[in-house]
Amino acid sequence: MTQQVATAIWQIATNSESGGAALLPTVLRTGTGLALVCGLCFAVVRVLLPRLCALRPGTTAAAARVVCAITLEPRRRLYVMEIAGQWMVLSTSEAGVRLVTLLERAAAEEAMRSLADAPARTTLGAKFYQSRKKKFTDA
Asked: pLDDT digits over 37-64, tens only?
């Protein structure tokens, strides 16, 4: 019985004498058209859109750079950023992002060089470790 039903469906799908156009060619044409439209959309999104919008990897990194980030509180931070050659201090919090001040480029670069050349600050844990290490090596 199942084979008879399948045969009847196949005859209806391929027979144009059953009162209309054949169903199988219509489904194949529709599927082919849908595949072409999906392929075209994929090509536009993956190839053309990044070229038109200039969203290539690396272009945003050249425009903005985080120089320094300082956590003030769990949800509040200060950022020193270089955006398009201009240095600025930004603050972030629950209220959003705000510009604190603009920095002169030469002064900001000099300050960053002096911070890089300064000796690292020792923490309380490092001081404790050094004192214990010295105590055990002296004994």
From this structure: 999 999 888 888 767 765 555 555 457 7
